[in-house]
Structure formats: C-alpha cells, structure tokens
Amino acid sequence: xxxxxxxxxxxxxxxxxxxxxLVTGATGFVGANVARLLLSDGYRVRVLARPAxxxxxxxxxxxxVVRGDILEPDAVAAAVSGCARVxxxxxxxxxxxxxxxxxxxxxxxxTRTVLEACARAGVERVVYTSSVGTLGLPAEGxxxxxxxxxxxxxxxxxxxxxxxxxx
Length: 167
Known about the structure:
By secondary structure, the chain is an alpha/beta fold. It is built from three helices and five strands, in the order βαββαβαβ. The longest helix is centred in the middle third of the chain and has 22 residues, at about 100-120.
C-alpha cells in the first residue's frame, strides 16, 4: 500500500530525483497507482491519456498530461520525448469484443508503437505491464490449466483506494 510504505522504495534507490518518467494507462486503476507511487518517490510524471479519457483517477496529482493514443506514433513520440523511463500500463483488458481486432490493435500494435518510440528516444528502461488479454484460450477452447496458481483469488487481499498524491 503506497500510503504506509516506509522510506524510499527500491524503485527510487540510487536514482537521481526529479527524473522524468512516462506512464501510459494512468487514467486506469493500475496506471493511476503506478503514477502515484512514482510521484511519492520523487519522479516527475508525464502521462499519455486518450483525448476522451477522464483524469479523475489522477485528481490532485501534479502530472504533465499529453493527450493522445498509444496507436498514434506521433503522440507517443511526443509523450516519450525527454523521459528516461517508461511504464507501459495501458492495455485493453476486455476478454471479448465484437471486433476482436480492436483488442489486438490496442495490446499488440499499441505496445509495439510504445516500444518503438522508446527505442528511438533512447529510453533507459521500459517496464511493461501486461493485460489479461495475453492469457488466451487453449486450442480445445476450454479453460486453461490452473495448477500454477499459488492460491485462490478469493484469498488475495482486497484492493485499497489510491493514496493521495504528494503535494
């Protein structure tokens, strides 16, 4: 939990303060919490948000907002410019869509666009957060194996609301 984390996280250990980072997907639950954690560690955070996306999840957070889509190379290039690190959290988490190509475009082509922009801009490190869309279904069409799970999701701790942004 961000609010009760003592001291500096491993994320900021040995890193110059005020480093510029980009977070894609920061208007969503996971991305907003990544952005808040980075802010609490002293990073300057830029977010790439689609033009129609609400910024409510980032309310009160001192972030720079670049409006654009991960499918737009020029928008991604502008967002990545000057950032040492990129946290690519954006993704299409749907398991089904009338046009399944939408999910592929967002998760595969969008990620490719982000990674290519990062390579061109000389980004030091990219942290990629995948979506449930990578799970796929076995060829037989039934559920996949579950033996790799260490515990039932019903015993995982409940999510906590996002911590307040540092002032």
